[in-house]
Specification:
- It is a single chain.
- This protein is an alpha+beta fold and about 325 residues long.
- Among the domains are: about 130-165; about 170-335, Umud Fragment, subunit A (Ribbon).
- The chain has helices at about 55-65, 100-105, 130-135, 140-165, 230-235, 310, and strands at about 165-170, 205, 220-225, 240-245, 250-255, 260-265, 270, 285-290, 295-300, 315, 320-330, 335.
- The protein starts with about 55 loop residues before the first helix and ends with a strand.
Length: about 325
């Protein structure tokens, strides 16, 4: 080209449409070839779906699975189904009758509510009581009876063991320990009167295991078994309660001063704040004697009314029972020693 536009019609190839010329002639319909005819479809073939050729392949799959307006009866709208949301009972997405949905369990109204879970059960607890374990298979009444019998027998056994090896109560039958420990009248020299059948003599507790772990000490009130000579001299024997005065190896002597008796240990007067002055009278002199090894010299606090080591001798260590540490009866006399 030379920069000048060619006039219309010139230099146009043969058979090409000239945009500047008249429009091409449209051939008549009789001159057009017949369209190809599709072979007849079998009777059981599904009806073709109307799908827009311009629809993407993913949308075509959704359209293929959804009914169209053409598939609905005249005057009826197609069912509203979401693409890809198929009925669990129908793999093609078509709606199912209500009775079919109920039969297949797809109708929510026909599904029964789930049963509530059973309440949690507590795990069975096994008793640690050996009696319960041994009687687990027995009837309840028999188990209760056995439990009571074992409880009573066990309590009695515990009491006996405590009395034999730990603590044991004792009664004061005479006035030999007045006024420290009271006896009750009509015994001679007792300061307490009985009230009817109630005996108000002091009851004391003795520690039975103390002398197994340590030696007796001077001044302690001790329960002991009397030597055989006590039965002859005092007319009584068995168990006595006296105060320890002389230890093994001590020299014990009783001297008179103004008619009252005073104890001397190894030549020195013994301090005895627990003795009342009136209780020292009418006592003769005694000794001196030396206490043998493994023996102890006992005396009562009421010297004029006490039958003690001055008459029947010393007490061997094996005869000692325990130390008196408390008075528990009567209530007004409760105290520690």
């Amino acid at each position: 080209m030379s920069g000048v536009e060619d006039p219309p019609g010139e230099n146009t190839p043969k058979g090409a449409h000239d945009p500047w010329g008249p429009p091409p002639a449209v051939p008549p319909a009789s001159a057009l070839p017949d369209p190809p005819v599709a072979p007849p479809a079998p009777d059981d073939a599904p009806a073709p779906l109307a799908v827009d050729p311009g629809t993407p392949s993913a949308d075509r799959a959704s359209a293929a699975a959804s009914p169209t307006v053409a598939d609905s009866a005249p005057g009826e709208l197609p069912p509203l189904t979401s693409p890809g949301a198929e009925d669990p009972a129908d793999g093609y997405g078509w709606p199912m009758p209500a009775d079919a949905r109920r039969a297949n369990g797809a109708d929510p109204s026909s599904v029964a509510a789930p049963a509530s879970p059973p309440p949690p059960t507590r795990p069975e607890r096994h008793s640690r009581n050996p009696v319960d374990r041994l009687t687990r298979g027995l009837p309840n009444g028999l188990r209760v009876t056995i439990d009571w019998v074992v409880t009573i027998v066990g309590a009695v056994a515990i009491v006996l063991l405590v009395k034999a090896y730990v603590v044991n109560p004792y009664r004061i039958p005479s006035s030999s320990m007045e006024p420290t420990l009271h006896c009750s009248q009509p015994a001679v020299g007792c300061e307490t009167k009985s009230v009817g059948p109630v005996d108000l003599s002091d009851r004391v507790l003795a520690n039975r295991f103390l002398y197994k772990i340590r030696d007796p000490r001077r001044g302690e009130i001790i329960v002991f078994k009397t030597p055989a000579a006590a039965q002859l001299k005092c007319g009584a024997g068995g168990t006595f309660v006296k105060r320890l005065i002389g230890l093994p190896g001590d020299t014990v002597e009783v001297k008179l001063r103004s008619g009252d008796g005073y104890v001397y240990i190894n030549g020195k007067p013994l301090e005895e704040p627990y003795i009342e002055k009136a209780r020292r009278g009418a006592v003769g002199s005694f000794g001196p004697i030396r206490v043998k090894p493994g023996n102890y010299f006992m005396m009562g606090d009421n010297r004029s009314q006490s039958c003690d080591s001055r008459l029947w001798g010393t007490v061997p260590r094996e005869n000692l029972i325990g130390k008196v540490f408390a008075t528990y009866w009567p209530p007004k006399r409760i105290s520690l020693h």
